[in-house]
Amino acid sequence: MPFGGTLDPENRWVLFATLMPSDEIEEAYAPQFSPTTGAPAKPARLAFGALFIKQRLGLSDEETVEQIRENAYMQFFLGFAGYSSKTPFDPSMMVHFRKRFTEEDLNRITELIVERGKAMVMEAVASLPNDDDSDDPDADAGKQLSLDELVKPVDWPEGKNWGTLSIDASCTPADITFPTDLKLLNEARESTERIIDDLIEKRSGLGCHRPRYDRGKARANFLNVAKQKKPHRRKITAAIRRQLEYLQRNLGAIDALIASGARLSDLKTHWWQKLLVISELYRQQSILLYSNTRSIPDRIVNLVQRQVRPIARGKARAAWEFGAKISVSVRNGFAFLHRISWDPYNESEDLIPQAKKYKQEYGCYPERICADRIYINTKNRNFCTRNNIRLSGKRLGRPPKNPEINEAHKQQLSADQRRRNEVEGVFGSGKRKYSLRLIMARLAKGAETSISMAFLVMCAEKIRRLLRLFFVFITAWFYAWQRPASSWMVLMHIWRLVTSEPLITA
Length: 506
Known about the structure:
Elements: H1 12-19, H2 22-29, H3 44-57, H4 61-70, H5 72-77, H6 93-99, H7 103-126, H8 141-150, E1 164-173, H9 181-202, H10 215-226, H11 233-259, H12 269-290, E2 310-312, E3 320-331, E4 334-341, H13 351-362, E5 368-370, H14 378-386, E6 390-391, H15 403-433, H16 444-482, H17 487-500
Parallel strand pairs: 1-5, 5-6
Antiparallel strand pairs: 1-3, 2-3, 3-4
């Protein structure tokens, strides 16, 4: 440490370092490298920790490297032997780090972190003062708080359902502008013009194949419609037809250049990849224009992030979102990522696989599943009935005539709906604090890693809050035992501890 300082053992990065399963991270990272060829790879702890820091603080790649260089606690978290003011790696390495951890690897590491965190919480509960002579009915509140909600009791009957599973789906928007057909075609036209110029520049004597139209006029035709607030549908259709004609001439010119000796290998990789996307875009837009239809499978909405598809949301703020659709389950307080899909799908298909995953982890099915209306279909109802699972939602058939039973059913439904709010809180917290509101990674692999890492960080933060809560509980008990008459001092002390760093629950 500089200036002769020491590290605080209660710092969050020191706690995170104890939570990380280093061996499992190394097992997922090391097989991707050859022990005999190539330059030495960066340590697995450094690569994983850098992604963790970036996702937790919501930083860019460049700012992540700068923060690591300046912060001794982060360097301890990354496994440095001592503080160093040198840049640990180039910011461009973050792209490679994201490619080296798969979604399955990160999900498995998340489960290991939760298991290790639960063990730490149980150890903290075991260290709570246990005064058998105390008449205080709340003396065992800390144990009830942790064990009842987080850990399956050891003496739980075999085969009996336990716990709660909350499931839902959402969309993680990608960093793209709102796509329109006219805007996409104009961008495709400009890109093909750039490709034609590059091919002609690489090979002399091919200028005769350049399309003979006024590029400035082509852009003016686009701007005349794009700048209008509410252009008529006929104007939009006419502008799209013009841009398609320009794009057709450019694609024909590229084919003629290739036939005359030009090579796509002379272009940079992203240009010929974009050319393939533009060819598919031209096919799709031609079908949409001349077949009098508004939808088409695998519709392209961005030339660079070609994996992005429109996801129907039906929300008041946004009827459509553009990004990956994710399915999430909250198992007894901890959020886990179940599925990432770039194509739209019916999320009700995920209820049965997530219930089976719950049984694989805990040895039994959940006592209840809290889900939205879309999950409550005949197939899912039959599955829950066969396995004695209470599925949230209104019961089938007429309501019972007994008013007491009817009122009990209503209270149960209300309680299940309140419990389902926790998964909505996970989405809100993830989009507000853990960068799920806008995924900045452009590659599909990098975006999937960023999404998976967000839920890993969320679980680690949950464990840190639980441990801090037990620290507050122990401190309050100690003050109450020393000065039982000054209960208001206990409350003031707890207030200072809690407000020193806000405990934001999901």
